[in-house]
Automatic annotation (TrEMBL):
GO BP term, example: RNA processing
Protein name: Exosome complex component CSL4
Localization per Swiss-Prot or TrEMBL: Nucleus, Nucleolus
The organism of origin for this protein: Acrobeloides nanus
Presence of the UniProt keyword Endoplasmic reticulum in the record: no
PANTHER family associated with the record: 3'-5' EXORIBONUCLEASE CSL4-RELATED, EXOSOME COMPLEX COMPONENT CSL4
Gene3D superfamilies in the record: 2.40.50.100, Nucleic acid-binding proteins
Chief location of this protein within or outside the cell: nucleus
Length: 222
């Protein structure tokens, strides 16, 4: 059963008209340089963009200004994500949060997970993409031995739910395990494929099909 899933025409149209929309954020804090020790991991801080974790602390890897926002990890624990940004007064920024529905682009497939980029949070197109990871166990319910390449492919766009923030390398952890989540637009070579069934995407011109874990989104024209 899906939880407060909001799917609108925006999720489809935004892929073809990626206009930048404003968001919201808290204030930036202080200017730092690469290698600056920032916050202790023991107090719930985690590395985000422009940071890394080592020896129990979050360190900066860029020159800029620190920005901290509240989030949740994959287990639902409250954490504080630390980012480094170039501008001091960078306002109106939307960030993914646990349980949010996001649109992501699949970048690469590994043996146990797919690397993705979050481009949209709910109905808001982002002006900065966020790294995310789709793990094999977060694709189909009650299935552990999922073949990733039969579910998603590089270049696909997916609707997914944010589980929480992983480590600095994996970024946000996302899931398409719900029926309404999955591929909404697929890529095969130079051809775009659209949802056909819950298991297939199809070319609207050649009728060529490929397997995917397809999002069963409502029909907006009905």
């Amino acid at each position: 059963m899906s939880r407060n899933l909001v799917v609108t025409e925006f999720h489809m149209s935004v892929l073809f008209d990626p206009s930048i929309l404003p968001g919201c954020s808290s204030d930036l804090e202080k200017s730092i340089i690469p290698g600056t020790r920032l916050y202790p991991i023991s107090e719930g801080y985690r590395a985000g963009l422009g940071c890394y974790e080592i020896h129990g602390f979050v360190f900066s890897s860029l020159t800029g200004y620190t920005y901290v926002y509240d989030s949740n990890d994959a287990d639902g624990n409250d954490i504080k994500v630390v980012e480094i940004r170039k501008k001091f007064n960078e306002k109106h920024r939307i960030v993914p949060v646990a349980d949010a529905i996001v649109t992501a682009r699949v970048e690469a497939i590994g043996p146990k997970s797919a690397r993705c980029s979050i481009i949209c949070v709910e109905n808001n197109m982002l002006n900065h993409e966020f790294n995310s990871t789709l793990r094999r166990e977060d694709i189909r319910p009650n299935e552990r031995g999922v073949d990733l390449l039969k579910c998603v492919q590089p270049g696909d766009f997916i609707l997914s739910r944010v589980l929480g923030h992983g480590d600095a390398q994996s970024g946000f952890l996302i899931s398409i395990i719900e029926d309404e989540l999955g591929v909404i637009l697929a890529q095969s070579g130079d051809e775009r494929l659209i949802p056909y069934t819950s298991e297939l995407v199809r070319s609207p011109t050649s009728n060529y099909t490929e397997p995917r874990k397809v999002a069963l989104v409502p029909n907006m024209n009905s």
